[in-house]
Design goal:
Layout: H1 6-30, E1 48-50, E2 54-56, E3 59-66, E4 71-76, E5 79-84, H2 91-104, H3 135-156, E6 162-169, E7 174-184, H4 192-197, E8 200-208, E9 218-224, E10 242-244, E11 249-253, H5 262-276
Antiparallel strand pairs: 1-3, 2-3, 3-4, 4-5, 6-7, 7-8, 8-9, 9-11, 10-11
Protein name: DUF5996 family protein
InterPro entries: DUF5996
Pfam families: DUF5996
């Protein structure tokens, strides 16, 4: 599978990131709150990503970004509308069309139009910068996200612990999951996003598509509280993986070779972090499941 670099499709990626902000902000308003912002992430689908099932009063709705048909699909009860995703459109046009369709179906929801955790300086409801869209690259990016979600879930599914399963976090536009350890760890600064995200100890497993500084997509593993110090990496695998003490983060740049060793990376980096963070009940996580003889039934 071709692994697109950030520089190859950054303009299409920006379009999808901005559209994901619309879905995420609607989910933020309508989904029941969960710790670590678990209620705002966007589940992945075969076709793209989605708000999943939401309620506005007694009415059900769901909004999908379908990258196989290049449409923003709005479902309200038994009614469905589609908005084409095309080059040259603006985020204002997507915003206005989406909320107009929702109002036509009796759904009234308001969002903060300021993009979150993005360098984009426009507002979602007023910016008229024409946006690019390359359907082929959008699907390649989706395939990377889907594979990353599968790798994370393959590793995390067997762990006996509280977790947030892989999904698209629309602020940072990465596919991430968490293992949460039951120790309160309030964030030291009074910042809204961080105060909710960082209030218990956890390890985040993620996949990120790159940016203007780092062109290649990467898997990452991040502890909270942040460690910001050298760690023992003798057991870290594969060879291409590394730890950045300044970022308190493990990285595995994705290429044709490293893509075959993601499970090693997730396992060895997590093991190092659990020991460094002194998670004393970690052995419980790895008690084997009793499903071997049940799956065929």
């Amino acid at each position: 599978m071709h692994i697109p670099l950030h520089s190859e499709w950054h303009d299409t990626k920006l379009t999808l990131h901005l559209i994901s902000q619309l879905l995420g902000k609607i989910r933020l308003q309508l989904a029941p709150p969960e710790p670590q912002w678990g209620h705002v992430s966007l589940p992945l689908m075969v076709q793209g990503f989605t708000t999943g099932l939401l309620f506005e009063g007694e009415r059900t709705l769901q909004i999908d970004v379908d990258l196989l048909t290049s449409c923003l699909v709005i479902h309200v009860e038994d009614q469905t509308d589609a908005i084409p995703i095309e080059s040259g459109k603006t985020i204002k046009s997507y915003h206005d069309d989406l909320f107009a369709r929702l109002r036509e179906h009796g759904i009234h929801v308001n969002i903060n139009p300021k993009p979150q955790e993005m360098s984009f300086t426009g507002q979602l409801d007023t910016d008229e910068t024409p946006l690019a869209y390359d359907a082929a690259y959008a699907r390649k990016g989706l395939r990377l996200f889907q594979r990353a979600a599968h790798e994370q879930l393959t590793y995390l599914s067997k762990l006996r612990c509280r977790k947030i399963k892989p999904a698209l976090f629309w602020g940072t536009f990465d596919v991430s999951s968490l293992v949460i350890y039951p120790i309160e760890q309030p964030f030291p600064e009074n910042k809204v996003i961080e105060r909710v995200a960082f209030d218990e100890q956890f390890v985040e497993f993620g996949f990120w598509l790159g940016d203007d500084v780092t062109d290649r997509p990467s898997y990452f593993v991040l502890p909270y509280p942040f460690l910001f110090r050298p760690l023992p990496t003798e057991t870290l695998k594969p060879e291409a993986a590394y730890y950045d003490a300044e970022k308190s983060e493990f990285f595995l740049p994705l290429d044709e070779v490293t893509g075959r060793h993601v499970q090693d990376f997730l396992s060895t980096s997590f093991d190092i972090l659990m020991r460094e963070m002194d998670w004393t009940t970690r052995d419980h996580f790895f008690i084997p499941l009793k499903l071997d003889g049940e799956r065929a039934e």
